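Researcher: Next entry in the queue.
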Amino acid sequence: MIHFERFKLENGLTVLFHKDITTPMAVVNVLYDVGARDESEDKTGFAHLFEHLMFGGSINIPDFDAPLQHAGGESNAFTSNDITNYYDVLPAHNLETALWLESDRMLSLAFTPKSLEVQRNVVIEEFKQRYLNQPYGDVWLELRPLAYRVHPYKWATIGKEIKHIEDATMEDVKSFFAKHYNPSNAILCVGGNFELEYLKEVVEKWFGEIPSGSKPARVLEAEPEQKEFREKLIERNVPADAFYYAFKMPERKNAGYYMADVLSDALGRDKSSRLYASLKKEQKLVSEIGAYITGSLDNGLLIIGGKLNEGVSFNMFDKALWEVLEKLKNEIMDDTELDRLMIKIRTAREFQEQGLLNRAMNLCQFELLGDANGINEEHEIYYSITPKDVQRMAKEILKPTNCSLLKVKSNQNAES
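Model: Structure for this entry, 416 residues:
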């Protein structure tokens, strides 16, 4: 059980406090309810650009990291299609340094031409290094628009193309900040060995006077039901042929989300999974294979991905894969297999919750879903899943008409 307190400032900032008496450290985590799905299709990559801009200094503090490092702390951030999350870890007695820094950049980020150009170049370089110049790096740039035709999940967090970042104006950036970066659109979690009254006092001191702004209305076009198999073949300079089967699955708040998660574990979580045992170990068709879910707040994807062994054709592998999937759909798994999966899920969860930072981040994410206490209730949802539930989900989503397949063909052999 993860205990926490919740309170709200008058300006709309939701605050969570998780007391941990076992550590001399403190965590300050700020989740902003903005991700790549909140961008315009002709101006993508802005949420990720802001992840970088937020470290470019505020009006009052030219260098975000310097005071934090001086206080013995460190910071980082990440962006997804759904959220942007910033966190600071530092000695508990220096908590107010992190609150000061986070509140100051929420209130008055510095929009200088220099900061914009520096961070723009950083993001463009990241786009090139991670997505364009790395083997299999552009898979998500190709797979997302294949799987999604309408919903903004059809572009990656980095953006659709470099040009959108190159063309970002100061006016664009200021507008995006004003719309999404305010107390009404944020969740703050503080973890550490503090008393609640003290925490309320210092959070009010640093965040209470920030204007509330307004939580932007999110009206996203729903992705229509997929009714046909989609396939795309691309040739790249990669060491082996690769495959990515993307199946649509229920959104985060749906009970089916958890069933799909268990289904993906049964298929390809580790070396005891069905795909690994059949396609790698027995038939030796692949050098690697796995299955996972994207964890999206809206309708996400269950991905089966891997690399073919030399001499194995896509068609040969495809036939063998669908045989494994059909077996899962037609035969109910036994309780022993499900019990083994649940033990792994519980172990992974307990391991993750050992860290104060992970607990703070997860509390924020469950609060975004509707209630931070969901962190304590999720295990009950998993344990209520039956073999019949897994079979029903397999029948519902593991079908060709719900599948988008990206094949990456290696051209290295052709060149040699």
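Model: The chain is about 45% helix and 20% strand.
Researcher: Noted, moving on.
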